[in-house]
From TrEMBL:
Residues 1-27 are annotated as: Disordered. The chain crosses the membrane at residues 34-55. It comes from the Bacteria. Residues 12-27 have a biased composition (Basic and acidic residues). It comes from Streptomyces tirandamycinicus. The keyword GTP-binding does not apply. This is DUF3105 domain-containing protein. Keywords: Membrane, Transmembrane, Transmembrane helix. Coiled coil: none annotated. Residues 1-11 have a biased composition (Polar residues).
């Protein structure tokens, strides 16, 4: 009788231990599910928050860009784009401004896809690039070397822009687009970014989307 009782107690103890293990396992599974759900919720909230932050940043950046594109540029000179000739010619052209910002020009344009020229380029070809929406950065011997290097770097990162020396221009550093021109104090002058933002393929462009490659190179 005692042996049978001991066997029964042993079986009951084993069942109790198994049941306790099962309860512990179920409790652990519940904890894991709660942790997983909580972490997922935190992750989703973080992603949503980050996405909203990025969208807000992009929205603010877009607003700033649009504002810069509309704001007038201090001391900018403008010419009536409709009065600037656009004929293709094979003869020399005398332009009323230096560097020229428009007028009759050669049928071949200067490559203006981040192109930096260390020597002077033909005006009749450069003007054609402006017609395609390029910004032309020019400098003379009075321009500080450090500013020239900074501007070369900017042009080298900006499609529809080009840069070259113009020895006999009035200012040390000048920026030109079709019908538009400004002289700046240096590479860090805020009008540099403003001019690029406003006139690289800007509203002044007679032929927006026209090629800036496949033309005349250095």
């Amino acid at each position: 009788m005692t042996s049978r009782t001991n066997k029964t107690n042993s079986t009951n103890d084993r069942r109790a231990r198994i049941e306790e293990m099962r309860r512990a396992e179920r409790a652990r599974d519940r904890r894991n599910r709660v942790i997983t759900i909580s972490l997922s919720a935190v992750l989703v909230a973080g992603l949503v928050g980050f996405g909203a932050y990025v969208l807000n940043e992009k929205s603010e950046e877009k607003a700033q860009t649009e504002a810069a594109a509309k704001a007038p540029i201090k001391d900018e000179k403008s010419w009536d784009a409709k009065k600037l000739g656009r004929n293709h010619v094979t003869t020399a052209v005398t332009y009323p401004m230096k560097p020229p910002v428009g007028g009759d020009h050669h049928q071949a344009w200067m490559n203006c896809d981040r192109d930096v020229y260390d020597k002077p380029i033909p005006e009749v070809n450069a003007v054609h690039s402006l017609e395609h929406g390029a910004v032309w950065v020019t400098y003379n011997d009075q321009a500080p070397a450090a500013d020239v290097e900074k501007l070369k770097d900017k042009v080298g990162r900006t499609s529809y822009s080009m840069m070259s020396p113009v020895k006999d221009q009035a200012g040390p550093i000048m920026l030109s687009a079709w019908g538009k021109q400004v002289t700046v104090a240096g590479a860090d002058d805020p009008r540099v970014d403003q001019f690029f933002t406003k006139y690289v393929q800007g509203p002044q462009t007679p032929e927006p989307g026209a090629a800036c490659t496949g033309g005349l190179g250095a």
